[in-house]
Amino acid sequence: MPDGDTPGGTLWDLADAERAAAAVLPAAVRDFVAGGSGRERSRDGNQRAFDRLHVVPRVLRDVSGCSARSTLLGRPVRMPVAVAPVAYQRLLHPEGERATARAARAAGVPFTVATLSSVPVEEVTAVGGTVWFQLYWLRERRRTLDLVRRAEDAGCAALMVTVDVPWMGRRLRDARNGFALPAGVRAAHLGGGASSAHRPSAGSAVAAHTAETFSPAVTWSDLEALRAATRLPLLVKGVLAPEDAARAAGLGADAVVVSNHGGRQLDGAVPAVDALPGVAEAVGASGTPCEVLVDGGVRGGADVLAALALGASGVLVGRPPAWGLAAAGEAGVRRVLDLLADEVRDALGLAGCARVAQARELRTVRVP
């Protein structure tokens, strides 16, 4: 198959990847990835918020050597982008997280392996490249710390703790579909074979499984203990309030990820990019070195440029690589990330920025 082609046609932008994935995925799996919680106001609001953002470009600047290269958590990246954690990727392709990690390595960006990965972290880090581990706080503290040690031993470069999921939001698409994991897909880090996530029921079996597994009692003292328990760089994901971001920075977080979980938790939560300026300001005022990333609704290079202009060090992308994986496996993810790299460089240059750092000097305008 020629580069960029999938069974659904040639991918020219990230939206094409979603359309190509829709052509091959079962409807319930497509809904599992695409859906948000409740009326999906926050899911849809993330993209609408980016659509309202316009950047004021600068002119008469030498951009002949324009480059999107940057750093995240002190490591060089081809563009200021990381692949966000997405659960159960073997639902989308037999190779699952292995294929996505290989594509991220080839693209020169970090890949985040999820607690609910369908491939063990050791197999993901064996691929090479920069791998971050996303952590949910489990009901059994010992099991949570065991996951931290496991990520460290596997060679992960950072730990990303997700703090906005005391339980899974009411994802109505999954509930209406009675969504359950097929027999060949499991949470590789949680042990055993079949679980409640595999048992068809009235509602979402995956939601029932996470309610049994995740702790709703996590507090700032747990985050402080986690910071003390690992020497890995620590990202705190799921922050929207500036006060929470400043407190996380004060407790030693190396980065906060401004996120409403792709619109999959509190329906009606503020779009992540709308919360970004306040978080960036609060973290900057804290006087503590801490990067600010954002996810949710990033669908192209212009969105990355806008996020940089609003104070982000970089962005995470989740659904677009997942759609690429479904459409054409590793090649599909590589195509998505290569497209995004081209778009980021294009946006930088056309805005008069030869380097990523210059994008943070741009002004933005919000339109109704």
TrEMBL record:
InterPro entries: Aldolase_TIM, Alpha-hydoxy_acid_DH_FMN, FMN-dep_DH, FMN_HAD, FMN_hydac_DH_AS
Domain called FMN hydroxy acid dehydrogenase: residue spans: 6-368
Source organism superkingdom: Bacteria
Oxidoreductase found in the keyword field: yes
Record keywords: Flavoprotein, FMN, Oxidoreductase
Cofactors: FMN
Keyword Flavoprotein: yes
Listed PANTHER family: 2-HYDROXYACID OXIDASE 1 (PTHR10578:SF107), S -2-HYDROXY-ACID OXIDASE-RELATED (PTHR10578)
Assigned protein family: Belongs to the FMN-dependent alpha-hydroxy acid dehydrogenase family.
Full protein name: Alpha-hydroxy-acid oxidizing protein
